């Protein structure tokens, strides 16, 4: 009894290409997860001053990234504007200083996180493409 030889068709090759794309995406996701785990476990132990990278990675690698950034920008600008209004209309010095500086601090932290994430994406882009 002879066995039939497998002859690939165009449909088979397209299905194999789809499977290859799925595997590439899975590999990229796993590489990203390994990088996150490395940042979460190893780097903070070795360099405690770089602990802010954990927050940056969590914010920059989630699907909620855009919404979280917008939310924090709204909070920061709200505190800043309320602080300025209190400075104009109120005589309560400590309150207006605290509110104004809180808003400015939130906006400064967001700016630093944006700078770090942009710097990180420039480093990482060749790896994610491959």
Describe the structure.
The structure is a single chain. It contains five helices and no strands. The protein has 130 residues and is mainly α. The longest helix has 37 residues. It has one domain. Helix 3 packs across helix 5 and helix 4 packs antiparallel against helix 5. The chain is rod-shaped and about 95 Å long. Keywords: Coiled coil, Membrane, Transmembrane, Transmembrane helix.
Q: Tell me, what's the shape? A: rod-shaped
How far is the N terminus from the C terminus? 46 Å
Largest sheet: none
Number of helices: 5
Strand content: under 5%
Number of distinct beta strands? 0
Helicity, as a percent range: over 70%
**Count of all domains:** 1
pLDDT under 50 segments (min length 5)?
none
Encode the helix/strand succession as letters.
Answer: HHHHH
The SS-based structural class is mainly alpha
Cα radius of gyration in angstroms: 25 Å
Average residue pLDDT: 70
């Amino acid at each position: 009894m002879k066995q039939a030889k497998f002859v690939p068709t165009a449909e088979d090759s397209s299905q194999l290409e789809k499977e290859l794309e799925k595997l590439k995406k899975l590999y990229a996701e796993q590489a990203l997860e390994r990088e996150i785990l490395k940042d979460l476990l190893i780097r903070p132990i070795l360099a405690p001053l770089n602990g802010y990278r954990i927050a940056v990675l969590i914010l920059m690698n989630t699907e909620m990234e855009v919404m979280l950034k917008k939310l924090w920008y709204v909070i920061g600008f709200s505190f800043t504007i309320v602080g300025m209004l209190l400075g104009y209309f109120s005589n309560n010095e400590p309150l207006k200083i605290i509110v104004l500086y809180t808003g400015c601090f939130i906006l400064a932290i967001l700016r630093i996180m944006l700078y770090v994430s942009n710097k990180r994406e420039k480093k990482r882009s060749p790896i994610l493409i491959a």
